[in-house]
Write a structure and sequence with these properties.
With 142 residues, the chain is mostly helical. It is built from eight helices and no strands.
Length: 142
């Protein structure tokens, strides 16, 4: 194992898929990560699918690719994958990375509509984006 077979990633163990996902995330290799997602997802149970997708969203956030993260979140929703608070906090972090406080605020409001409610990490990340945009006074309202 460890190599892509003609059948895709099906010959890899879950541990190997997770290891590769973490590697692609650390390296910022979004293209290879997307291939892994497409080919490995059908082989994983729903909780592992969510975990791998959260790693991908993290990689997008680290790369400053908010648009790609939002497109992927939309894809997750379209395929019936319910985001969790980690998913949504990762998206908030992507907004923070690009300094989009208005987008982060809209997303915070949307979180409840998705059935996931902000936690302390959500609020901390939201405050970070406000501070980065010179809106420290707005933090008191959070």
């Amino acid at each position: 194992t460890g190599h892509r077979s003609d059948e895709g990633w099906t010959s890899m163990s879950v541990e190997e898929i997770v290891r590769k996902a973490k590697h692609f995330s650390r390296e910022g290799d979004l293209a290879s990560f997307e291939v892994l997602l497409q080919e490995a997802e059908p082989c994983l149970d729903p909780s592992m699918q969510l975990l791998i997708n959260n790693y991908f969203l993290h990689a997008c956030s680290q790369a400053g690719s908010l648009d790609r993260a939002l497109m992927h979140l939309h894809h997750m929703e379209e395929t019936g994958m319910a985001p969790d608070v980690m998913t949504l906090n990762t998206i908030l972090n992507a907004y923070a990375r690009v300094g989009d406080s208005a987008g982060a605020q809209r997303f915070m409001e949307r979180m409840g509509q998705l059935g996931v409610y902000p936690n302390s990490v959500s609020y901390s990340t939201f405050c970070k984006v406000l501070a980065r945009n010179g809106r420290a006074e707005a933090i008191q309202q959070v």
